[in-house]
Structures are given as C-alpha cells and as structure tokens.
Amino acid sequence: MSEHDLNWKYVDGAVVESEPVARARQQSLELGIDPVSPAVGAHLGALAASTRAESIIELGTGVGVSGLWMLQHARRALLTSIDTETEYQQHARQHFADAGVQAARIRLITGRAGEVLPRMNESSYDLVFVDADPGSVIEYVEHGLRLARPGGSVLVAHALWRGRVADPAKRDETATAFRTLIAELAGSPAVATAISPAGDGLLQIVRLGD
Predict the structure, then answer these.
(1) 98-123 confidence digits (pLDDT tens)
(2) Domains of the chain as residue ranges with CATH
(3) Which of 10, 95, 190, 201 could share a disulfide with 160, CB 3.0–4.6 Å?
C-alpha cells in the first residue's frame, strides 16, 4: 500500500460517525449509492460549523449522508436538497427524522439540478454542496457561485474523480471537466480555492466579497 493510500485510510478511519450517519451510509451502500467518505463528511461538518451556516443547498440528496453531516454541526441551518430520485429522498427524510432534525429545517426538491437551480434565489446560501452528475460539474459550479452569498462557499465532491484528474493521460470527459474547472478557478480573482485529497477529493470555492 502506498504512502498516499495509508494516509487516506488513516484519515477516513479516524472519523467517528454518529449512529444516524452510519445507518444512512449503510443504506446508501445497499442501494448502490456512492456516499461521501467519512473524511469528506467530517470536512463538510467542520465547514458548516466554522462558517455558522444558516442556509445550505445541496445537489444530490442520496439518502442523507452529507446532509446529516452538515446539519448536525450547523444546528440552526436550513437545508434545501435536490435529487432526481424520490425514493432516495423518502429514505433521507426518515434518516433526518431519526436524527432528531426538525422537518421545518429540511426542504427536499425532486428534479434535475440543471432545471431547479435557475429558479433559486441569488446570493442566498452560506454553503452550496455539489454531489450530482459529475459531467455537469462546470454548470453546477456556475450556478453555485451565483447562489452563494459573498463569503459563502461552493463545495464540490469527487474533485479528483477516482484519481484520474491528477493524471494528464486520463482524458475522459469527466476528468477533463474537473481539470478545466480547477484551472479556471485558480486564475480567477473572484474566488479563493483549495482542494482536499480526502475521499475522492473535495474542492472548496469561496466567493469573495467586494
């Protein structure tokens, strides 16, 4: 096992997930959903807490793993979560309830993110989490930066896309899209960016104020 793999395994294993998150993770795996890794979940929770997030929008509900991580550390936050799968959202709603999250803090929208996002209010969210169709990541980040308030963050899961983004020989559409996105953001004076190698990679983009 390489040094990188050892570090990755250690960081993931050091995370202690709550029982509601662990149950949601187990159901995700049973349904064939790829949830965020424990290390990425911990990052999401820490960012939600440190920014005192009150308004979060998420692309890709799954059965609630990432939503639970953010809400358990941002206890006043309201979560809007978008997914195409009604069944997954029904499971997520139950996991939120089991975790003691009040129903009034959750708004689940069933639909395609590309169709829903244009209807959402600009500059209204402290955190925007993108964990949806990776082939549309550039479009989703553009929407996310429009929705994030100045000083808010857009967080993008799978930013290293199964290790393919770091290998220039990998030129599939998804790896190329992530590479293009990261390069364009690095040169933009409107944002500050950082990439964590935890899990499959987590890209944080902070929308800078005037």
Answers:
(1) 999 999 999 999 999 999 999 999 99
(2) 3-207 (3.40.50.150)
(3) 201
> CA-to-CA distance for 44 and 196, rounded, in angstroms?
11
Alpha-carbon gap, residue 204 to 85, rounded angstroms: 26
pLDDT in tens, 62-73: 999 999 999 999
What is the number of other CB atoms lying within 10 angstroms of the CB of residue 41? 26
Query: Is residue 4 classed exposed, middle or buried when 0-12, 13-18 and 19+ CB atoms within 10 A define those classes?
Result: exposed
Starting at the edge strand found earlier in the chain, the sheet holding 78-83 runs 106-110, 78-83, 55-59, 125-130, 148-157, 202-207, 191-196
Please write down the long-range contacts of 158-165, taking CB distance under 8 Å and 24 or more positions apart.
158/131, 158/134, 158/200, 158/201, 159/195, 159/200, 159/201, 159/202, 159/203, 160/195, 160/197, 160/200, 160/201, 161/134, 161/200, 161/201, 162/200, 165/201
- From the list 87, 96, 159, the residue with the least C-alpha distance to 130 is 159
| CA distance linking residue 131 with residue 150, whole number of Å | 22
* Pair 210, 47: CB distance under 8 Å: no
